[in-house]
Structures are given as C-alpha cells and as structure tokens.
Amino acid sequence: MEATDFQDALDDWFIESLKTYKDLHVYQLEHPTQVLEWTSGRTVCVAGHEPSRNEILELHLPRKLFADENKGLCAERDFKVDHGGFTDGPVRCLAHVPGTRCVVTNDGLTSDLQVWSVGGDESDAIRLTGRVEGRSNRRRRSLPDAVCRVAAARSSRVLHGAVSGDVRVTELTSGRVLYTLDTDSDEPLSSLRFAGDAVFLAGCSNGNVYVADTRTPAPPGLHPPPTSPGDPALWQTEASPGGAVLRLSACGRAVVSDPRSPRGAAGRARLEVPPGGRGPQGGVSWAPALDGCISVSGFGAAVRIYDTSVWPTEPLDVPPLFEHRGHAVYSQPAAADVFVTAHAWHPERPRTLLSAASDGSVHLWDWVDPLSQ
User: Does this model's pTM top 0.85?
Assistant: First the structure.
C-alpha cells in the first residue's frame, strides 16, 4: 500500500471511529504476544513467544480510560509497565490465579507448567517460583497439534492438559494432584473451564465436550457436538460463565448448546470467513458482562462481536454486531499479512476488550452498541 493510500485509509477510519468507539488506545510491543490475561480490572499480562528468551510483563491500563469525561478516540501509547521478568522459553498459554499475585504459564512444548510471582515485597520483578509437572509429556510429543490449556480457580487449583486423557486438577500450594480426567481417548483440547468449585468442562478440537465433577468417581459426561450433513471437524469450543457451550469450525459454522440439553442446538449461525482466513486461532470468548455475546478472532485481522441470543436453530448467515478492524488499518503492510493472535474481554466493563496482533500491536477498545445509536 502506498504511503498516501495508507494515510487516507487511516484518516477515513479515524473519522468513522469517532462514532463507533467510546475509547481506543493503541500500544506497540517489541515482540508479538499470544496471551492476554487480566490480573486485575486495571492490569494485564503479556509475554513473548520466540523460541528462546522472552519478556513477561504486567501492563497497567491507560489511566484516561477510567476518567469520568467522555474522551472519544484516544490513540496513544500510554500503557505503563508495572512488573516484568524473563522466561527462558516461549509463552503460549498464561492464566492468572484469582485472588493471588501468581500466574501460571506453558511453553507449548510440553505439558508442564511454570508458576510465577508477580511483584510482591515492593519488587517490580516477575519471578519464577515453581513448576507443575504435566501428566504425560511423551503422549504430548506424539500429538504435535495439541496445545496445553490452563484454567485457574480462586482456591489455587489449576486445571491443565493438552489432550483429553491428560487433564488434571492440581493444587498449586502443595503440588498435589486432586483429580485426573478418565477418558478412553486423547483428543487435542481447545478449552478448559471451571463451571463451579467442583465441576469443569473440557472442550476438544473435534467438538466433544467432557463435563466432570471432581466430587464423584463417576466417569465424566461426554457431549458430542450437534451435527448436520457436511459439518466439518470443529476447531474451537468455549463455555460461557453460565455453562452454555459454543462450538466454532474453521469454515465459520457456529453452534450454541444449552447446558440443560447439550445434544441439541439452542442456536446456529454461519459466520463470515474472509478469503485466506486462518481459522479462529486468536480465540473465541464469551462476554462476562453481556448476556449471549461472543467475540471471535483469528479470521484475519479483525475481532468480531456476535449476539448469539438472536441466532435461530437452523443455520443462517449472521453479520457481526460489531467489528474491530483497527489492527489492519494501523498496520503499514497489507492487511492479509496481519492477524489477531489473542483477545480478551474486560472482566467488569461490558464492552471493553483487549486485542493483540502478529505485528506486535495491542489495542484496548470500548465499542459502542450500534443498536443504541
């Protein structure tokens, strides 16, 4: 793209954004990140994923975001590094342990976890304080497409595994394994989520969802995806805070299942997939403070918001409620060269999200509901 054309596109999008965003902050990391994890309502962790030494940082959100006045569009680099450290390997997965100043990471190479202390004792350092052994690194290496997933609970319990046969619940303080998921298969995982103090969901890349109760020796419930002729293998599964399950395929087929009837479909949709889309590698997330809303990234350089509450039971083409195209617009190379690597909803602010892209950009944006305009 010529410099003049790029500036014209940026100017046009700037004018459009004055009406579509309440806030927008743009930040540039030295290296791209594949993880965005809130450690509080005002701080977030990022980390590099190069093969060797990487930074792991806790960033403080722009203070202007929490000001009372209506600021409109604010594109500036005013994030602040609160804490930082280094890891000897890549960081492909990161989870904050609620109620603590600890995070756990995985390098994507084994099923083992690394435990980090974020600050403390008036220190600004992020320090490695322990390790948690995965269930079977031999089996993990035999499934190169499997990626370790991690979820943490307030009781310092960590749910982790790369395939369905490797899932464990481990107590961080003692290192004791509290529960092991008993399945007859090794299906690569796409998500792990606690659904309460004792219940968790393990979503697999083929669309299967296991529901396990750690209080009982009974085998976990297996819920295969609702299917129809021509359905491809599903790539992503994600459970909402209320237990609803979203399954999304690489070609954009989406199915929402009611937790009370997991074999049926509460809603279906066909989502837009741009030419050359990479699939939903950047993630699928349920909004914690907007009932029925999901966000999808990885299909190119955009993050799209959808309202699943209006989806019919038969699949139809569904346009997004909102689309954040900022990573493509702000990137000097062609948009096809940039893709979203991760995104995350703010835990309390209903329409505030963070998104990161392959060019090292991180955007913090608060979108305006187009139906309210």
Answer: yes
